[in-house]
Amino acid sequence: MYNLIMKCLNLLFICLFIYFKFFIFATFASQEVSDDDGFEVSDEILAIVGDIDYGEYLSSECTTCHHAQGLDEGIPSITGWPVESFVWALHSYKSGARKHPIMEMITQRLSNEEIASLAIFFESINN
Amino acid sequence: MKLNRRNFISASAGIAATISSPMVFGASRPKVVVIGGGAGGATAARYIAKDSKGAIDVTLVEPTRSYYTCFFSNLYLGGFRDFDSIGHSYGKLASDYGINVVHDWAVDVDSSGKTVSLAGGGTVNYDKLILSPGIDFVDNSVPGWDLSSQNKMPHSYKAGSQTQLLNAQIENMRQGGTYCMVAPPNPYRCPPGPYERVSMVAHKLKKTNPSAKILILEPKPKFSKQGLFEEGWSKHYPGMIEMIGPEMGGKGVEVRPASMEVIIDGETEKVDVCNVIPAMKAGKIAELAGVTDGNWAPTIAHTMQSRKNSDIHILGDAAAQGDMPKSGFSANSQAKVCSMAVRGELTDSKVFPAKFSNTCWSLVDTNDGIKVGASYEATDEKIAKVSGFVSKTGEDASVRKATYEESLGWYAGITSDMFG
Ligand SMILES: Cc1cc2nc3c(=O)[nH]c(=O)nc-3n(C[C@H](O)[C@H](O)[C@H](O)COP(=O)(O)OP(=O)(O)OC[C@H]3O[C@@H](n4cnc5c(N)ncnc54)[C@H](O)[C@@H]3O)c2cc1C
């Protein structure tokens, strides 16, 4: 019985995760055709807990373009995202699975810890 | 007269607003004075005030009450933006961030006494001074032109009334007339700026004055995004734009504002509108502060500190920093590194390694946007380029449209990052 519950929960989790990916895909408008459907981020990367202060400093590089109060005219809003979605999205650019010249350039010099720190900081901004 | 905070407020009618800081600190709060409320200075003032949560007393000295961005001023010339949409006030910096906004000119810096003198007669003290005064023009770089001719032959390279003036001249140009641009030599602010301007002027003339001509007098052998601009010009504005390069007389042009003439390789040509963009140097106050070496003010990449005075930081166009182009994006990026370094020194807050980036978008015609960008790191020698990208010729129209739309988002983002 316990096993069955765990399996169901697991399945639910996977469904939610896939749903999130589509959600991101739809909102994080990308201007070239991206091949990120099957893109996966490892458990080790997802397990990293970021430093919110460091994330706040790093975030200033994002807010030159991404509106700090979450406006999404022409450039998507990145505030208030769940940490996992944020981490997944940045890693999809970093790996090149998702295409965008600026986002690929910016993420390629972010370490896994820096991405986690940005994720935890931006999750904390609710507009 | 030395001013303290109280008599300064009553003495200067130019203060937008002052509020007490969110926390109560004694008179011992360290003081930062920022000269210039543009892309570099407004960002630095805002980040220091925001991140120090009242622990640092920030004064911003800026003569104009509305800052008109040079970025998107070309889009105003093209009819894509109205003038008011590129103007920004300093109200929120005062009301929401507790910044002491002083609308006055800084006329001198005494770096041993650590004071700044203002045109209105007062002085302000600083522990750290941040200079982001933008550019001034090099005297005599275009023979025949000086600031007294800027009404006849506008530069429109500082936004505001100059931009409106050029716009009016273009709109009132006779049918079939010639708009001439005397393009600037390197280094200058906004490398693609003159060529985005040509595109926007062409866009306007194509509608209102289709037999008009555009003449570019070009002193440089090549310029930013040249292939992309030339592709766009022949596609959207065939036959309208002529460029005379350096070896054909585009270099060393002389002008006669009174008779609206330009002299190219000894030949006199009459034009209808003449947009002279002279050679540039750091804003005059940088020289007065003693931090320039030649035309620009050399900086240490890790902190944006002056190489000549460690209590002065220099941002944006005025700085000789290495590989970054002189752009609003760059100035904003440098301001964040500087703010972190200044807070670290004054309040012992955490200091992280410097990182910089830049992207310059340009509009060639309706929904035809292009961009160039790069990321940078601090080395002991300079701000050094790490990697970059540029739009490609022959790109799909949908990519170009998305690039333009992205630039609108960037404008909203950076202006709120500067002014709150
Ligand atoms: C036509 C054009 C298009 C451009 N397009 C773009 C673009 O698309 N993207 C981009 O990133 N950049 C663009 N730029 C470049 C951008 O405008 C500048 O690089 C940027 O503004 C530099 O910031 P700054 O802080 O160094 O100087 P500025 O933004 O010029 O700010 C300097 C401020 O200092 C003040 N000041 C000067 N002297 C004093 C003094 N003595 N006392 C007090 N205050 C003083 C001035 O009033 C001014 O407000 C463009 C420029 C032009 C001309």
Greatest interface and its participating residue counts: A-B, 29 and 35 residues
The poorly predicted ranges of chain B are 1-24
- Estimated structural class of chain B: alpha/beta
Mean pLDDT of chain B: 94
Number of helices of chain B: 10
**Mean pLDDT over all positions of chain A:** 82
Overall geometry of chain A: globular
Give the arrangement of secondary structure elements:
The complex is a heterodimer of chains A (127) and B (420).
Chain A: H1 2-27, H2 43-47, H3 52-62, H4 83-94, H5 101-108, H6 112-123
Chain B: H1 5-11, E1 31-35, H2 39-52, E2 57-61, E3 66-68, H3 73-77, E4 87-89, H4 91-95, E5 100-102, E6 106-110, E7 115-118, E8 123-125, E9 128-131, E10 135-137, H5 161-171, E11 178-182, H6 193-208, E12 213-217, H7 226-236, E13 241-244, E14 254-256, E15 261-264, E16 267-270, E17 273-276, E18 280-282, H8 284-288, E19 297-300, E20 305-306, E21 312-314, E22 319-320, H9 328-347, E23 355-365, E24 368-378, E25 383-390, H10 397-419
Parallel strand pairs in B: 1-2, 1-9, 2-5, 9-21, 11-12, 11-17, 12-13, 19-22
Antiparallel strand pairs in B: 3-4, 6-7, 7-8, 10-18, 14-15, 15-16, 19-20, 23-24, 24-25
Bound molecules: flavin-adenine dinucleotide.
